[in-house]
Records
---
Amino acid sequence: MGLTGGIVDVGNLYDCLRGIYENKADESILDKYNEVRRKVYLDLIDVISSANIRRLFALDPDRAVEQDEFFQMVKKAETDEDFSRQLQNVSFSCERCCVVFCLELLIEAIGRASHTA
């Protein structure tokens, strides 16, 4: 999520700056960008990242596969090609939802800002 989130951040910031440059939005769009970015971080990215950190440090490495559902799914995906494909599709879907959510909020904010400018 970290690298993907960073790429999404850059793209969204670019959209905001471009909107300002093209006089489609005023500088208040940057406040909205910050608000949306923070909300996505708190509601989605931090939750997932924190769970991943807890998973890494809370489990006995020798028994992680036995103790953790995520590691069990990864282990199953090693030998079950159909399950592996399903797991990849779900992962891609979650990342795409985050990107779409950010973009929708920014587009909405740009639209509001351009009507008030």
Note: The helical segments are 2-21, 28-58, 64-67, 69-79, 81-116.
---
Amino acid sequence: MSDFKKDLKPNPKTIYNSSEPPFFDNEIDNEMLTTTQAAALLSISPQALLNRVSRGQVPYFKFGRWNRYRRGDLKELLFAHPRGGSNGS
């Protein structure tokens, strides 16, 4: 096999042992969700999500008359203020 073809062949060790997250995670985080999908991800009702949007608590994008939410932004909201953790010790 020529050196050129070796360079094109992916090395699984460098792909999976990298300190950076896999490439496709960025694509997933940039996925745009509908109000119903975003509410399901946050485990709240669609109306509760719309209430939080109107209060400025949830970032969103407007496409015509529809709201869209970036999955990565919603994940940041979920993990921004963790609760619990210790058993009181």
Note: Strands lie at 32-33, 61-63, 66-70.
---
Amino acid sequence: MSIETSRIAYLPPGVFDGMRQLVDLKIADGGVTTFPNGIFTQLKKLKRLSLYKNNITELPRNLFKSQGNLEYLDISYNKYGQP
């Protein structure tokens, strides 16, 4: 699933509920600033997650707690760690 080049700044909790078979998710080149805790909880089969080129400044501590199969994570080109 790909959400690219959008003006989406926020994804609500539960937006990925019911997508348990999702293996590859790209949310890139947009305006997302952060993700609510638990947003990826049901995506236990997720292997690739690309969050590059957004405006992410911070990620919740346990955001990827349920992603035991995650092999690839790209958070490049964000504002992570910047005020």
Note: The chain has a mean pLDDT of 90.
---
Amino acid sequence: MAAYLTAQCDVLASNDVGMRTGTPAVHKTRVAARRLRSTLRIFGDVVAADPAEELDAELQWYADLLGAVRDRDVLSSRLTKQIAQPPAGPEFPENLTPAKPAILNSGVTPRGEVYLA
């Protein structure tokens, strides 16, 4: 169990550094946090209760924070694909061009497809 916990902690630490330098490691980091939390619960008889509960709370907070980032990453990816390939039809005339994907990073919450005339 100790080796498994250590491995998950190593994933958290290395991915933290990676995310700070632009490496897309949010998903793997969330998985490591879930695995740590599950292991602490499964082996609750072996670990001290108070420190395990504190760590569980911190890991839950971290996973929630990363969840919001992951949701935005997924949304951005999906919208970028949709913007790059607008549907054909009379409601999308040929003289409209898709907005640049950078608009997704503008801080504005996308509410649909964005087109520039």
Note: The first strand starts at residue 97 and ends at 98.
